[in-house]
Amino acid sequence: MLQQGQQFPLTIKRLGINGEGVGYFKKQVVFVPGALPGEEVVVQAMNVYPTYAEGKIVRIRKRSPHRVKPLCPVYDKCGGCQLQHLDYNAQLEAKRDIVIQALERHSRFNVEELHIRPTIGMDDPWHYRNKSQFQVGVKKGRVIAGLYSMNSHELIDIDRCFIQHDATNRVTTVVKTILQDLRIPIYHERKKTGVVRTIVARVGFFTGDVQLVIVTATKELPRKELFVAEVKRRLPEVKSIAQNINGQKTSLIFGDETIVLAGEPYIQEVLGDLSFELSARAFFQLNPIQTIKLYDEVKKAAALTKNERVVDAYCGVGTIGLWLAREAKEVRGMDTIPEAIDDARQNAERHGLTNVTYAVGKAEVLLPKWVKEGWKPDVIVVDPPRTGCDNALLKTILQVKPKTVVYVSCNPSSLARDIDTLAKQYRVEYIQPFDHFPHTAHVESVAKLVRK
Closest by alpha carbon to 383, among 409, 403, 364? Predict the structure, then answer.
């Protein structure tokens, strides 16, 4: 049994689902952040548990040919990216492997028999994120903004994040300076004093519109008029300035109340031939370039001929359903968040799509009701949260028996578990992994399931 602090040699076999190296010491599994498959490393045991251990690299005896120098100067401290030290083509292979591992661990499929395609990556895997949410703090009298370091409560100041669009980097940097110049009090988490907690910046990739949301602990924002005037002067590209109030002790960024301080209440973004209005708190895909590829894959998998009834479960603001609407006979979407459904209805109306309807509620409640009324879907698209589909929804799909299920996943483990449940009646035609978040361990997938 390993002891805490013990040093030992380890050969790394693969990458784990969080991007860490995985090796075995006397049959005990050891997770080592920063280590790569094929490397021989000397590791120090940091945490030892009954079934596994966590270690850190002391030195690398044999380096992977795929190891590269990370672009970001705070890469090892920040923790926002996990794979910048691995060359990009190897990242794409590793992400396909993460999907395979999840299927081996959480399903009864013979993975050899499944068609798991190579990961679809990006031509340029940098500056792809359209939104940043950086916590604000003070260090040595200077206003800083960034992310909390891995496993600690130290705020890492990020001057330029290499996976963020340059527009959001610029807004964050300038706003830090404005807060400093105007001496606006910064929130102190431990003492619960001060005002400004978070700087949120978002850009429309295809419109150039920029949105700034300043999250405050109190409704009162000192020198508010001056702050707005300075943002307008120094950042003329910002179309929408809002304040969100979050006085709660919580890890959630946003509170319930948002006030528009200047400009429009939302910015515009375009995906393909669809346009969207994004208010301060509206959810929107973080990588618009890959989102278009992903939605096109959903369209291909659905294989619509203008005769099908389609259900868009977990529809959010309706993006997937609207993407499919022109090829479908009818689309019905549902979500439990009323604001998302309001946005979805407005989006459908704005695009003149009359064959789309949206309802507030759970798919497992609404679907049986519609079937009873004589409306049965041919295709069901699910795009669930990380936890996967609700069990009641999976049961409902097996009862309703659509011809095709298209499963959009942001978590290979819950994807594996859910399609294993559906395998009673459905054959997995293929799984297509996507790299939405280069240099991180995240992997998205589209799985096409056809009724046996």
Answer: 409
Residue in 72, 81, 315, 410 annotated catalytic: 410
Closest to 119 measured CA to CA, from 339, 326, 290: 290
The residues facing 407 across adjacent strands are: 382, 447
SS3 358: strand
Model confidence band, residue 379 (pLDDT cutoffs 50, 70, 90): very high
Q: Check the annotation: does 124 bind a ligand.
A: no
How many whole angstroms separate alpha carbon 109 and alpha carbon 103? 7
Selection from 191, 49, 71, 202 nearest residue 124 by Cα: 71
Domain with CATH 3.40.50.150 in the chain: 100-122+287-451
335 a known binding residue? yes
The rounded mean pLDDT for the chain is: 95
Q: How many CB atoms lie within 10 A of CB 210?
A: 23
Tell me whether residue 166 is annotated as binding. no
- Residue for token digits 């790394």? 12
**Domain 100-122+287-451 listed as CATH 3.40.50.150:** yes
Does the structure show a pLDDT above 90 at 190? Answer: no
Q: Which CATH number fits domain 1-65: 2.60.40.1120, 3.50.50.60, 1.20.1250.20, 2.40.50.140?
A: 2.40.50.140
314 is in an annotated binding site: yes
Q: In the annotation, is 78 catalytic?
A: no
User: Tens digits of per-residue pLDDT, 245-281?
Assistant: 999 988 899 999 999 999 999 999 999 999 998 889 8
Evaluate if residue 337 carries a pLDDT over 90.
Answer: no
**For 131-279, which CATH class?**
mainly beta
The tokens for 184 are: 């606006």
